[in-house]
Amino acid sequence: MPQPSPGPSPERAAYGFVLYLASYILFALFVIWAYVPDEVLHSIGLTYLPTKAWAIVLPILGCIGAVSIPVVYFIINILHTQALEEEIEIHSKSNIPEPTIQNFDLSSGSVPPIVELDLATVCRHLNLGKDKLSPAS
Description:
By secondary structure, the protein is mainly alpha-helical. The chain is 50% helix and 3% strand. It contains 4 helices and 2 strands; from the N terminus they run αααββα.
């Protein structure tokens, strides 16, 4: 059984082309409905149409959705992030604790041992400037 791939395929190309054409056709129909007077639409037999107010409401709703969806995702991620003080972090028993790495000699060009850094220490080093770093308490 072939594995799914994110690469291009003939089926995806066909679906993409159909969606491309459908989006232009729907946009053209929307513009025609928004700009053509109701009398002309009624004369060709189109009587069951929404009011013209939706011609303004739909683009506004689209803009509000485009702005609010990333904000909502950001808020959800913030709410699901654990505090630094939580003991939910995963610690491996095979890693060397952080203070013993200071005794390792790196002058020979060797690779330092694997250590488990505290999350607060990593955040402090990533988010503070060099002049604001203070020893961990």
